[in-house]
Amino acid sequence: MNHQISLVGGQLTPIYVGVKEFNPDKVHFIVSDESLSSLSVLKPLLGVTKWVEYKCNPFDFISIKSICEKIISKLTEEDTITFNLTGGTKIMVLACQALIHEKNLKGFYINQDYSFLELPAYNKKQLTTQLSIQEFFDLSDHHLFSSNRLEDFTKEDFAMALAIEIFANNGKFYTTITGHMRRKYDNTNQPIPEKGKELLPNNIVFSWDSNTIIVNLNGKPILNLKSKHIIELFFNAGWWELLVAKEISNWTGLKEMLVNCVLPFKTDKSTRKNEIDILISTGKRLIFVECKSGNVRQEDINKMKIIKQTYGGVISRSILVCRFLPNATILEKCRELDIDIFYTHAFLTKQTNPLSKIISKLNEINKKGSI
Domain of 314? Predict the structure, then answer.
């Protein structure tokens, strides 16, 4: 029988990965009062793997070592045992490491680059285990309320997104319209009507319904859009998110991607708590993508920080994808919070598909260790 002694600390992902990677028949969790509650999240995810928990004083070397010795003493000659030293306190790790050397046992430590060290030889090897987006959320004890995949959007949606991009890049009509609608509706917390018509300065007439948006200038049409998602695409900058997601779908490091993710409160699953524009899984970590077609605000960066910490943990990464270079204060805050930035220089309208360079940025991000 294959046993694994796993030290439980604040992060559940390396513990779960250790179980999936080495597939023990039984796991012995060494926990403290502080980390005990986290096992209620982890246990349902272990499937058929058996487990047992042992509570310890995480700063008492002798008692921790004694607990592990009692576990080992009950094994038969046919049994094997391995230590996962990635979690727990430093004292817990030292106690287990002492046993590894004294009794000629084996262990491992999962590194920031998704490799692991074999103990006691300290050979470095790559992990083969990959996690789904669902598993990452389960480990953070959160759930998705709703989300879309790229396949949920039609060719018509992508065509409309491209048309809006061209419209946004040529002149100030797009910002005039969206700015007017934001002041009238967003700032007053009023929902945009399903159908309406607005008269704007410079002889701009803007009208819409649930499937159509028409812009006229001096009595002549300059934009005519039709899609069942047109309100989301135009008013909520969904066009930019869709174009970014389409480009990301070409990335070879991508294992899974969701767009327009809505996350509820734990205590009220019918109420929205957070939203994620694009969520990427490499199988090894989550990458949270915030898409901004216009100005980036301080609250946008604060939101990115909270989402990363809450749903992805230290293993995850965040990237801000915007059309324009953010101002100096935003750049400084992103550096401080370790948030990556990609921008396309939207004013360079002659540049062919500037979004294609995001693939190189994602490759760069994926090389960064963050466990």
Answer: 146-152+236-366
